[in-house]
Amino acid sequence: MEAAHQHLDSGMAQRVLESAPTIIYVYDVKTGRSTFQNRRFSELLGQPPAAPGEDWSHFIHPDDRLRFTEHCQNLKAIKPDETLFWEFRMRAANGQWRWFMSRDVLLSADAGGKPHLIVGNAMDITEQKSAEEHKEILFGEMRHRAKNLVSLVEAIGRLSRPRNRPDVDDFINAYMERLKAILRTGDIVLSSDARTADLRAVIETAVAPFCSDDSPGRIVLEGPPIALSERTAGSLALAFHELATNAMKYGALSAPAGSISVRWSLTDDGETQHFSLAWNESGGPTVAQPKADGFGGKVIRHAVAHEANGRIALDYLANGLRCTIAFDVPKDSAR
Length: 335
Hints:
Blueprint: H1 10-19, E1 23-28, E2 33-37, H2 41-45, H3 55-59, H4 62-75, E3 84-91, E4 97-109, E5 115-124, H5 126-160, H6 166-190, E6 197-198, H7 199-207, E7 219-222, E8 227-228, H8 230-249, E9 259-268, E10 272-282, H9 295-301, E11 308-317, E12 320-330
Parallel strand pairs: 7-9
Antiparallel strand pairs: 1-2, 1-5, 3-4, 4-5, 6-8, 9-10, 10-12, 11-12
Helix pairs in contact: 5-6, 6-7, 6-8, 7-8, 8-9
């Protein structure tokens, strides 16, 4: 269908502005007042009109009125092509507070280049806010139930174990710690609006049970922010948990002077991003390559098997274990 292009006469343009389901305005940063506003907030709120020039201040929430002053100050430094956002509440006729989001851009500057006029719009986002709050309640309930389920699984496992079998106790302990590592990573994902997990947070959460308050700084993390999908985050969390477990039993964390450095990077060749990470242990006892991988070793080696060009290497060096992890990330793929 071809779009019909036509010019609006002044009367039609006025009706469009008056009917738009949003507040469109022009704000003068020097006088601190609106020079144009297509309609009043009172119309959207079902309230009687406020006094001239008090449309914003009359209905706004007291807490947000303070933030409004701060936002106006920020507008005095707005840059070309920059958009400033802020959210605030307005009281409706039924006494309820409705949420609005304002978007402001620079319309004109004075001869010295300082902002003069701002054009923006304020849109009612109450339903969106309610949906977000409901979603967070559901996610909170999911986290609560997941923790209860893990506690139940642990209780059943411990009550079902045969007596005087240390090997079974060790198995249950290891199994539950792995399950808890995945659960803690799930908390990171659920706390993110994008449902992703930051790599640093995943590592910190995975190694936290192995860090003591009296020996801070034994595990050093260095690298840029990287958002991981839930699947990738869960796999890496298990790998880091196993690496930390082995370090505590046999490696750097089993010796007072031992330490671990974890460094990662993300490079770009134009089509693909290349992720690489190195876990380096030092200052611990001499390590030797095991004759066969246990379950933990298999978890580590298969942590990125599902990733594009995923690869992991475990090197048992004289000064400590070195684990390198790498995979490719296509640019059109959500990490």
